[in-house]
Amino acid sequence: MASVHERVREDLNAYVDQTLPPRRWEQISYHLAGCEDCRDEMLALCSVRNTLGACRASEAPSSLAARLEQIAGDHADAPLYLAAGQGQLPTSRVTRRIAASGAALLTFAVVIVVIAALVAPEPVRIADPVGSAREQFSLSASAVSINEAVGAVLLAYEKGADLGASITYQARGFDDDTHAVTADDAAALLQRATDADVAYSGTQRVWVSDGQGYYRSAAVRVAKQPGEGALLSVLDARGDEFSSSFLPDHISREYEAPEGWSFRIADELETVQGRHAVHLTASADAVPVAGWWIDSETGILLWTERYDATGDVSLAVGFTSLSFGSADLTSASADLSYSLLPASSSGGDGWCVGLPDCPAMLAGLPLVAYSSAERADGATMVLVYSDGFQTAVVGCARGVLDDDAGTVTAVSTSLPSVRAWQYDDDVVTVATNGSTALLEQISAQLPAEESHTETLFERVGAGLQRILPGS
């Protein structure tokens, strides 16, 4: 039995001559749209019969050809439009064949244009830009070791982990006896926590406010080995492992306190999981914004609280068990959650794609890491900015907002706040755990909203790229 390719090739001559029945012509057209070999053979047939370019170069109106033939006579050796001895006058039959061939090729060109428009890929519709941006923030926050456990839990939640019913959280509170420290001293303490050269394992618990006075909560098993990385395993409400990710230890950043924040340290050490801890607090306009409990011996971060505009805890993470010593980083289900490059790798050409510019600083936050890729459907760019206190993740990817939505903004005191908008063929997103003012500042420094438009020429071009690779 002949294959579908053989049956198509048997009809290619008739297809080029436009003599096939409509249904068979349609079947072959769709086959050619997806079969490069048959398409090449069809194009070869067209070339043999007469290329469209040759027709354009030599074709004259049939009335003019007939008139010249009358003037020259049937036996003229040198027709008026040919130099003596350079050629013979085409017969009426040849003239008709040239005209028919030109018409067939013109029809074929139109067919190709129509097919290209039909098969042109539709732009990706982004139905949930807020959820996508928060997922990207969670991946990036984990990958650059900014609140590792928090990022892992937020990502698990976005992927559908059952964290159980919301629960209460008892804030650790504030100390009465404190003394002021400079922003540089506070940054140095947290820098020491990030750079702590110590191996440990244990369990952390994360609490994320639901905005109603309760908290979504999950436990995260943590194992960290200096120079190698960390293994984070998120447990669901039943205590089963929902996800496990390995985070390589290769991206470092410098802490720099946000402008307007003031810092204080408790006069006395506190106790967290049986260990002595330095209690550092930060305030803005006399309202607490964050608190950290830092192990006085090793420098690792034992507990963290972030506060909303009213001073209530919006997010907390802390060790519920902890042991020091060599950590086991093996896990059957562990995956690299995200691949980012440190900002220091951005010195070469071509690292910034999608956006017209990838600034080294946004709203006072330095670029610490990035990820970029050129794909068939467009470029993708992820930029991570952080001063160690506040983090912002900027994304740019090919697609259009669902239902042609304008700028989308979602502000939260516990989850990352997000803004997303259309930038021609791409969607730009900003997700940050900072203030609404920070979100506004970052958005203002990025390309402005620009509606997605696609001309017929662009659509046909995209279709040709799909059916004729290399065109």
Helix content: 25-40%
Overall mean pLDDT stands at 78
Going by helix content, strand content and strand pairing, the class is: alpha+beta
CATH topology of the largest domain: outer membrane lipoprotein receptor (LolB), chain A
Query: What percent strand?
Result: 25-35%
| Sheet with the most strands, sense and barrel status | 12 strands, mixed
| Total beta strands | 22
The first-to-last residue Cα distance is: 34 Å
In the CATH scheme, the class of the largest domain would be Mainly Beta
Rg, rounded, reads 34 Å
How would you sum up the global shape? elongated
Counting structural domains, the number is: 3
Work out the helix count: 12
Gross CATH architecture of the largest domain: Clam
The CATH superfamily title of the largest domain: Lipoprotein localisation LolA/LolB/LppX
Runs with pLDDT <50, length 5+?
Answer: 55-60, 75-89
Transmembrane segments: 98-120
Keywords: Membrane, Transcription, Transcription regulation, Transmembrane, Transmembrane helix
Domain Putative zinc-finger: 7-39
Pfam families: zf-HC2 (PF13490)
Question: What are the SSEs and their pairings?
Answer:
Elements: H1 4-10, H2 12-16, H3 22-34, H4 36-49, H5 52-58, H6 62-72, H7 92-119, E1 125-126, H8 129-143, H9 148-158, E2 178-181, H10 183-194, E3 200-209, E4 215-225, E5 229-235, E6 241-248, E7 261-266, E8 270-272, E9 275-284, E10 287-295, E11 301-307, E12 313-324, E13 335-336, E14 341-342, E15 361-362, E16 365-375, E17 378-386, E18 391-398, E19 400-401, E20 408-410, E21 417-423, E22 426-432, H11 436-444, H12 456-467
Parallel strand pairs: 1-19, 6-13
Antiparallel strand pairs: 2-7, 3-4, 3-12, 4-5, 5-6, 7-9, 8-9, 9-10, 10-11, 11-12, 14-16, 15-16, 16-17, 17-18, 18-22, 20-21, 21-22
Protein name: Zf-HC2 domain-containing protein
Transmembrane segments: 98-120
Organism: Tessaracoccus lacteus
